[in-house]
Amino acid sequence: MSARRGTVLITGVGRSKSIGAALALGLAEDGWDLTIGYWAPYDERVGFVRGAHDPQDVAEKCRALGSRVDLVPGDLASPDAAAQLVDAAASRNDLRGLVLSHCESVDSSILDTTVESWERHFAVNARASWLLIKAFAERLPEQRDVSQVTGRIIALTSDHAAHNLPYGASKGALDRIVIAAALELGSRGVRANVINPGPIDTGWMTPEIRQAATLQTPAGRLGTPGDTADLVRFLMSDAGGWITGQLLHSNGGFRTS
């Protein structure tokens, strides 16, 4: 069992078959305690593969690795949810990391996107991410030695846009928010980065999508949640403290035509 390193708040861990679940398990293995954010009504609405008690099952697996875990439900479309999540994660006074794995993602295009859908995507993917970062950073004082890392922010993004317009547009806003955090919060010892993991099958791919995405990936296979978790674990480690303000592509060379 690794020595405990502090607490990380991870959002978007509603399903066992997800990137968020892999992130939680990897960070627990590395000695981090966790506050896990999730919102079951979203996972029910989109209808991807899930069990009846997935957040609880992920939490129990993390506890078996020695991690202290708190589960905190919250609808990030609400302006109040971000501060409530951060307050819960900071209850042990050792909050050191923020990993943003949540999203609103409902396919639609320029001609059929509704204003309601557009606003919910931006509320969850952009506004909530800003508010989470803000609440996290407010707990980190200005540092005399800014070379010392006191907090890490990592967010998952996407370059998908056509026929998934509000998702892609709001993820583009997320990128800018996180890169701004690296610059604006450096004096608080923050390192902030964005990861684009490319297409990862967490229960949403059809056989046709799976085949097409594999053919467009020079590494010869689709990415897995574990591939993304490996990079997050590195960025959360002492060895990853020199990397900040970056949009990192961890996608096996995936390209769209």
UniProtKB/TrEMBL annotation:
- Species per Swiss-Prot/TrEMBL record: Rhodococcus erythropolis (strain PR4 / NBRC 100887)
Q: Its family? A: Belongs to the short-chain dehydrogenases/reductases (SDR) family.
- Top-rank lineage group of the source organism: Bacteria
One GO term in the molecular function aspect is: oxidoreductase activity, acting on CH-OH group of donors
A single Pfam family, by name?
adh_short_C2
Instruction: Indicate yes or no for the key word Membrane.
Output: no
Name listed for the protein in its UniProt record: Putative oxidoreductase
Q: Which Gene3D superfamilies match?
A: NAD(P)-binding Rossmann-like Domain
Which keywords appear in this protein's UniProt record, sorted alphabetically?
Oxidoreductase
- List, alphabetically, the InterPro entries matched: NAD(P)-bd_dom_sf, Sc_DH/Rdtase_CS, SDR_fam
